[in-house]
Amino acid sequence: MYLKSLNILNFKNIEDENFQFNQRINCFVGLNGVGKTNILDAIYYMAYGKSYFNPIALQNIKHGTDFFVIDAHFVKNDKDEHIVCSLKKGQKRILKRNGKNYDRFSDHFGLIPLVIISPSDTDLITEGSETRRKFLDSVISQMDSQYLQQLIQYQKLIAQRNALLKNYALSHFLDQDTLVVYNEQLEILAHPIYESRKQFIQDFLPIFNYYHQLITDNKDDVQLIYETQLNSKTMSTLLTENLNKDLALQYTSVGIHKDDLSFELKGYPIKKFGSQGQQKSFLIALKIAQFEFIKKQKGIAPILLFDDIFDKLDENRVRKILELVNLDTFGQLFISDTHAERTENLLNSIHQDFEIFKIQNPNNE
Ligand SMILES: Nc1ncnc2c1ncn2[C@@H]1O[C@H](COP(=O)(O)OP(=O)(O)OP(=O)(O)O)[C@@H](O)[C@H]1O
């Protein structure tokens, strides 16, 4: 699978750009702030229906305009896949596949497998559990649409249950019948989600360990530990036991929406005890393992976006990653870098077909 062409209109700082891509490696080079990452983000948008960097959709519309359109042609299994996403202020986001609107954005999930490696991945280590849950859910959902639907339903039910709890705080009336229904439905949904997450970590961990060793050249023990209240109690027990607390808090404080992933290096949390370099290697191994996992499951190499990673890594790690590229492990690759010469030299050294796009500041054209 590969991205053949891309047209971007009014997306972030990009006014109107057209690209015809190389099937193998494409590099966007240019000075800081010219919009290289924004182009990668537009590609990301085609796979996920949202920005990797800015979750507030309206803020992705170019300043001073009132809509954006991203239009892409992919080739998948020798067939053209035409994906268009657009957003106009005051209207709903539209996502189309081959001219037909999606009713549910989630139906698009997984059609275009894609993995991004970016400096902002450090959020996975530094931010709260929600960021890690989103990562977990995003990887599993790319391969399992049933999981995604269960998750959406679960989140809807939690929102409804929270509304009920809030209502109790206002009216002091608790609609017990509705609460029982919500609790039962949550019990039904929580367990398959829990089982899928548990199974995923079990299958993913050896791949992650393999790439971590390959990139770092050492055998440091790395762990991803799935932390969940469901290890010790059922969802319905948790909900029943914590009802008084939930009523006081006015939200549901227990369940799989509180799960977390603990990242450990040699038995210690990497957030507290990992050096910056160790954290970076950890994250890159995590993302390359994500890539490999999806590839194994789907039989298709996901598109890979490398945002600025040459800038942030030492030469040894860059070499290791490029060795992987050279093994033909990867499918199509998009790279952003500030140094045109460095990128060109690196790519010449791996003897692969590539194309360089020089991106200029739109205001200096
Ligand atoms: N909605 C928007 N409208 C206009 N410009 C925007 C919008 N959102 C972001 N930008 C601009 O896009 C630019 C950043 O682009 P981007 O992050 O793609 O740069 P880059 O080329 O990757 O830079 P670097 O090499 O520093 O990572 C910034 O100048 C930012 O202000």
TrEMBL record:
Q: Which domain of life is it from?
A: Bacteria
Q: Which controlled-vocabulary keywords does the entry list?
A: ATP-binding, Cytoplasm, DNA damage, DNA repair, DNA replication, DNA-binding, Nucleotide-binding, SOS response
Q: Which Pfam families match?
A: SMC_N
Which residues hold ATP? G30, L31, N32, G33, V34, G35, K36, T37
Domain spans labelled RecF/RecN/SMC N-terminal: 2-343
For molecular function, the Gene Ontology terms on record are:
ATP binding; single-stranded DNA binding
Q: Does the keyword Ribosomal protein apply?
A: no
Give compartment(s): Cytoplasm
Q: Is Flavoprotein one of the keywords? A: no
Signal peptide range equals: none
Q: Which GO terms describe its cellular component?
A: cytoplasm
Concerning InterPro entries, the annotation shows: DNA-binding_RecF (IPR001238), DNA-binding_RecF_CS (IPR018078), P-loop_NTPase (IPR027417), RecF/RecN/SMC_N (IPR003395), RecF_2 (IPR042174)
A GO BP entry is: SOS response
Name the HAMAP family on file.
Answer: RecF
Q: Which family does it belong to?
A: Belongs to the RecF family.
NCBIfam families per record: recf
* Function in brief: The RecF protein is involved in DNA metabolism; it is required for DNA replication and normal SOS inducibility. RecF binds preferentially to single-stranded, linear DNA. It also seems to bind ATP.
Q: What is this protein called?
A: DNA replication and repair protein RecF
Protein encoded by which gene: recF
